[in-house]
Amino acid sequence: MRWFVLLLLFLGAVINFADKSIVGLAAVAIMKDLNLSYTAWGLVGSSYYWLYPVTGIFGAALADRLGAKKILGFLMLTWAVLQFGVLAITALPLLIVYRVLLGVFEAPFSPVAYSHANKWFPPKLRGFANSVVVSGGTVGAMVVAPILVALIATLGWKVAFACLGAASIVWFFLFQFFTKENPVEMYKEKQKEKKVKLEKLKLKDFLKVLGSPTALFTTFCYFSAYFLVVWFAVWLPIYLVEVVQLSAAQMGYSVAIIGVASILIYVGVSMLSDHLFKKSQNWRQSRVYVVAGAMIIGAIVMASSTVFQNPIWVVVAMCLAKGLTYAILPIGPTIMINELPERGGLMTSILTSSGNLAGIVGPLLTGSLIALAGANKIAGYNLSILFMAGLVLVFSILFAIFVKPISAKKNEDVSNGKVVGDEGQGNDSVLV
User: Fold this and answer.
1) Is residue 206 packed enough to be buried (19+ CB in 10 Å), middle (13-18) or exposed (0-12)?
2) How far is CA 93 from CA 34, 102, 230, in A?
């Protein structure tokens, strides 16, 4: 059952990020249809994240109380309604309203999905499980790009959006009727105990956890990586066409190649992290140093694309940059949940929502840089790439220095008939 749950969480992430990224793939068509400038397009990209941090925290906190199954099902239905609503968009204001609402109801998905996977998998597999969920985002944003580009070209961008709405409806029925909320019945008793703890949690204690170097610099590092997440979703397709001079078809295949390669890279990094954790039980060696090292290399490689702008190298550099920099996305939630396990959904929502603040600034910054560059668009894109690479480099170094996760938590999880603590030690328990 846990693997089926993980499969659906993966597919949910595919839909989630396809919803986010299709606007980038359809950028040329939308800008032409609605007569939008680069500055206006930056506003469109930014609008998705205006309420994202707030609703992400609220939705994940609600899932801690009501259950992930109910919240995820509700979210999927709202996505379907909004995607079908695209058929009525005729001007920039309506497009912005659509993007704001989509961000409102898509924000809780990632933190709730990470928390839900956390319930189904033992600590030694959580890095891998979260990397699978993250890879769903890459598949949705990049690997399915040729399919979405073909839909946009043949059916038009509005119908392509509606097709994603239909996919949300299919996922809703599969998740609601073929999965369970928890691994075993005894876990429900643990949830009842957690609800009591939630009510007794003092704000002062909670803020102390959030202000700790571990939570603070994990969030900063995630924030820096999310500049790339947004850039890849909103600007990469246009960058490949206008700067690298690829055709629409070549752009679609290049985006897919970058997506597939990056999945292999960050899943590999997550598996390495899990392996080292299982072997040493050392959080800093297995989680912090592995992630920081990967991100530092990724930032340097991405910066190199501004110097060596051969199309082949640009694609290779983007593969490495995306794969290595995204290492924080699956590992960051495990670190945050470890700091306050009884508030898993809330902790991950603060991480992802704080990171998504980059979504507000990133598209506007890139759009402004391109507009300021005037006829020299390449300079505008290069400045945005160097800014992101520098940000990731600085925060990944700070992450390596200051993040020291609590390594002695005695949290219990049920897996393969055992209750497993955060250190990977198992105790006999009721079988599933």
Assistant:
1) middle
2) 10, 14, 21
**Helix-, strand-, coil-residue percentages of the chain, each rounded to 5:** 80, 0, 15
Contacts of 394 (CB under 8 A, 6+ apart): 224
Q: If you count them, how many residues does the chain have?
A: 432
Model confidence pLDDT, tens digit, residues 174-197: 999 888 777 764 455 455 555 545
Residue 254: Cβ-neighbour burial (10 angstroms; 0-12, 13-18, 19+): buried
The answer to whether 156 and 86 are in contact (CB under 8 A) is: no
End-to-end CA distance of the chain: 10
**71-75, 86-90, 361-365, 421-425: lowest mean pLDDT where?**
421-425
Q: Cα torsion for 308, 312, 318, 320, to the nearest 10°?
A: -100
Domain ranges of the chain: 2-178+213-409+416-428
pLDDT > 70 in the chain, percent: 89
Distance CA 273, CA 270 (A): 5
Q: What token pair was written down for 194?
A: 């957690």
Mean pLDDT of the chain: 83
| Predicted TM-score of the model (pTM) | 0.70
Distance between CA 45 and CA 40 in Å, rounded? Answer: 9
* Superfamily for the 2-178+213-409+416-428 domain: MFS general substrate transporter like domains (1.20.1250.20)
> Alpha-carbon distance 269 to 277, whole Å?
12
Determine which helix (DSSP H) or strand (DSSP E) holds 415, and give its type and residue range.
strand 413-415
Other C-beta atoms closer than 10 Å to the C-beta of 353 total 26
Q: With CA atoms as reference, report the closest residue to 325 among 183, 429, 199, 222.
A: 222
Are 57 and 350 in contact by the 8 Å Cβ rule? The answer is: yes
Instruction: Fill in the amino acid letter for 135.
Output: S
**47 CB-near residues (< 8 Å, 6+ apart):** 96, 99, 100, 103
